[in-house]
Specification:
Elements (H helix, E strand, L loop, with lengths): L3 H7 L3 E14 L2 E14 L14 H9 L7 E10 L2 E2 L5 H7 L11 H4 L6 H13 L3 H14 L5 H6 L2 H11 L1
Antiparallel strand pairs: 1-2, 1-3, 3-4
Length: 175
């Protein structure tokens, strides 16, 4: 049987903990409380699924956690968002940006609306490596092509050079 200190050292580390998160939107019609007291924790190796009806606050919660909530009109009015023990809500934007991409990321429901339609897919994927990992643009583009190949986007080099809408059309016709 493990001692208490052994149990602490073998227990999975909490990567993300959200405590009593509240988000509201202020409009000329008044205040809409979108998120009211959300709590959850995600440990190393775990997956969290957030389910709910349309308009229940799933996306707003995720945007608040990531620090990409449109403010105004959105505002986090209470709570803590702890990532590896640091409260992200207390970080300056430049510090928080260093956490996004390198430490945590969000996959949007509609990826096509998340990508800039006039920039190539490869450039947008490579940007994360340039900004968060300090890679050269050339190395980052190569990494983007490698990622597209890993998820079997055909053919990755030409798909990387295309825009999101033309890449989606090419993938749809290939399947």
């Amino acid at each position: 049987m493990a001692t208490a200190s052994e149990a602490l050292t073998t227990a999975p580390t909490t990567l993300l903990e959200v405590r009593d998160l509240h988000v509201e939107f202020r409009t000329r019609d008044g205040v809409a409380k979108a998120v009211n007291g959300v709590d959850y924790a995600v440990r190393a190796g775990e997956t969290l699924a957030v389910l709910g009806e349309s308009g229940s606050g799933k996306s707003v919660t995720a945007q608040a956690v990531m620090g990409i909530l449109d403010t105004p009109p959105g505002k986090i009015t209470a709570g803590e968002v702890l990532f590896q023990g640091r409260d992200l809500l207390k970080l300056k934007e430049d510090e928080r940006r260093k956490v996004r991409g390198a430490g945590m990321a969000m996959i949007f429901q509609d990826a096509l609306s998340s990508l800039n339609p006039v920039l190539s897919v490869g450039d947008q994927l490579a940007e994360m490596y340039v900004v968060h990992r300090g890679m050269s643009k050339k190395d980052a583009r190569a990494k983007a092509i490698e990622l597209m190949d890993r998820v079997r986007i055909p053919p990755p080099a030409s798909a990387s050079a295309s825009t999101p809408t033309s890449s989606a059309a090419a993938c749809a016709s290939a399947s």
